[in-house]
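Predict the 3D structure for this chain.
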Amino acid sequence: MTTNPSDTTTRVQAVAAPPAPPQAPQRQSDAETADSLEPRAPAPSVEEPAPAEDTLTALLPSEVVRRLDEYIIGQGEAKRKVAIALRNRYRRQRLPEQLREEVLPKNILMIGPTGVGKTEIARRVARLTDSPFIKVEATKFTEVGYVGRDVEAIVRDLLEQTITDVHNDRIAEVEDQAKELANRRIVETLADAEERERAASQQAAEEQTADTVRRRARRVRRRRIANRLAQGQLEERQIDIEVEEPFQPAFEGFTGTGLEEVGVSLSAFFSQLVPTRKRSKRMSVADARTVLVQEETDRLIDMDRVYDDAIRFVEDDGIVFIDEVDKISGRPGGDHGPDVSGEGVQRDLLPILEGSTVHTRYGQVRTEHILFVAAGAFNVARPSDLIPEFQGRFPIRVELQALSERDLERILTEPGNALTRQYAALLGTEGVELQFSADGIAELARQAHLVNEEDENIGARRLFTVMEQVLEDLSFRAEDAAGSTVLIDAPYVQSKLADLVRNEDVRRFVL
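Done. Predicted structure below.
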């Protein structure tokens, strides 16, 4: 006869720990019962989970390309380069610490006409890997000594945005606890208000009621209020709560002078000197809950840790997309470039690209491992017109191809955010069912490609102007077509665009 080990273990445990004999239930005194239901001190701040060692999603390059194919048509070479760069960042994080510091990211320079997917590739990759991401225009920055933004503002803006994202994540983690604490404060406020009203109406003899009776009455009152609050019966009731008012400086930060950080730092300094003011406000329970949840959330979240985590995310996973770099290069054969300080901006960018320390009001940010992706059309200037040092900071170059008619046709249907789906959904809110036939989509792509060939080539952005022109009348009078189905086929598209495309003078202004 075999014995089940689990049964044996169960029996041994039962013998080792016999059940305690039943005891007569002890009646809890009214004072103890009331004390157990008295509002407890706020729970200590929840211990925030330590961030994972690998902040980048461990996706294979082939998987990254497949994900990008869901939203971006063509440009396979650019996708492969970006996917490899991301995988190398993941590989770097798995190296020993000493070697990890030596492996630097390989920055990428994308060359191609506008509207072919340069920005979208960088943005989708950052969203795919949940990496800190910022897109900046190179023409917004000036050389040191000129009025304008300095290049270090790129890192500061990236850090500010990352802090907001990390803070929102922390808010989601403590949201339930903050709501519970806020509801406790609301119950206490309502209970105190009812107790004051009751005490004012009681006679002198009743005010001498025993302490245990008062506690029992308070316990019953709090339980009744908590039940009504949970059922949403007190949302419109007006209550007086004490709220904190942050310090508001009497001056604004300096803007447009490159000293934004100075103005913000002064505001933070003075806010620490002035104690937090509290004053009573009368508002509904629903509004009070919103205010109190915000206060409790601020107490539960350790902002110093948020700042430290955000800095670490930026340093290890940050992605900076610098657009229009061709506009800060000198024109070949010209006396001057498009901006007198264009080459100066390139020189100012060199330390950040190579690796330096940027001082922010949250701490120092090292840029050695931030991935920089630069892009430009280079329709007038050439990559070789950039200063050699700047070129050397972008060892990986990829050329994006102009979109063909077939590419435009695929863009209209295949991506998850295809224009045809967007317009169908928009007009669907008006009760209009919009259908695109195969020949209609082909005609839209043909017309857009024709205008790109004969005028300036703005890539997929031409589809926006074409679609708006085709659907202008339907969008304007959508209420007249409510409940009907509208078919967008080739004849429909031709009737809206044929004359316009043939008239070159009008086409340049409309399309």
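Confidence is low (pLDDT under 50) at residues 1-57, 250-258.
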